[in-house]
Structures are given as C-alpha cells and as structure tokens.
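Design request, tokens follow.
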C-alpha cells in the first residue's frame, strides 16, 4: 500500500528524488546532463523553493513525486516523476491532482509546466489531463503547457 505525503518525513527522500531526476528527467533534457555537478548541487535549494509531494510505500523510499509552487496566480509544476516500475498505477495522476488542488487552495487560477519535446509519454499524459501546449521553445526543445484551474463556467 502506498501513501501520499510531503517530502522530508524520511532521511532518504532527497537522495531518492535526486536519483529519479537523474535517471528519468535529465536524460530527456536538451540543456542538462545527469552528471552536471552544478545542477545536482542546486537540487536541494530547488526543492526548498517550493513544495514536494511524494508517493511512497508505507515502508520504503519514494516511488514518485511532484514538485510545484505558486506565484502570481499561477501554479508552476516544476517536476513530476514516477519510477518506471510504478508507472501505469495512477500515481502520477494522483500526484498531479494533489498539486492542482493545492494550487487552487492557494489562489492559483492556472497551471503551467514545461515538457521536453522527446517526452512523448508526458505529452500524452498532460493532454489527457486537460493541459494544452501554448508555446514551443525550439532552442531548449521544450513546450510550455497550461491548464485552467477554474471550475467550468467561470
């Protein structure tokens, strides 16, 4: 059984999240390398600049997480990662919906995120969840996606 909780309740949270970033996100990035010491050194501060919700078994390390923050009415989804062995179980969807709910509670009217062009699975996931591509950045090989967080009809 898994539970959803905030990052930081266990000492192995940060190393596990960094491993997931290195193995699942960074290889898709056009702009960073999984072994870039500057990027890796900045991850603890990056996590401290927002909130992180993790999915983890009752006993054990995180198997997924979403990192996000709010600014000027926007919910910025910074990272969403699920361990490959746990994909297809609804964890990513649950984490995303938790982040969107928190954004709404903090006054965000819209969610925004960026997806690497090569990450076709993520593109399909976000499209299914109501996100729309709004701007492509060819030099970075990423696309910005947005979704209204306002209830329909408002």
């Amino acid at each position: 059984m898994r539970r959803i909780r905030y990052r930081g309740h266990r000492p192995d949270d940060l190393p596990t999240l960094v491993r997931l970033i290195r193995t699942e996100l960074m290889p898709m990035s056009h702009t960073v390398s999984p072994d870039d010491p500057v990027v890796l050194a900045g991850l603890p501060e990056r996590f401290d600049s927002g909130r992180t919700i993790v999915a983890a078994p009752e006993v054990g390390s995180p198997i997924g997480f979403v990192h996000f923050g709010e600014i000027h009415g926007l919910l910025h989804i910074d990272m969403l990662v699920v361990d490959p062995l746990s994909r297809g179980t609804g964890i990513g969807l649950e984490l995303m919906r938790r982040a969107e709910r928190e954004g709404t509670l903090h006054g965000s009217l819209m969610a925004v995120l960026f997806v690497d062009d090569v990450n076709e699975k993520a593109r399909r996931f976000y499209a299914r969840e109501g996100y729309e591509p709004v701007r492509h950045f060819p030099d970075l090989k990423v696309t910005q996606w947005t979704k209204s967080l306002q209830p329909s009809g408002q």
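Comment from the thread starter after seeing the answer: thanks! The chain is about 30% helix and 30% strand.
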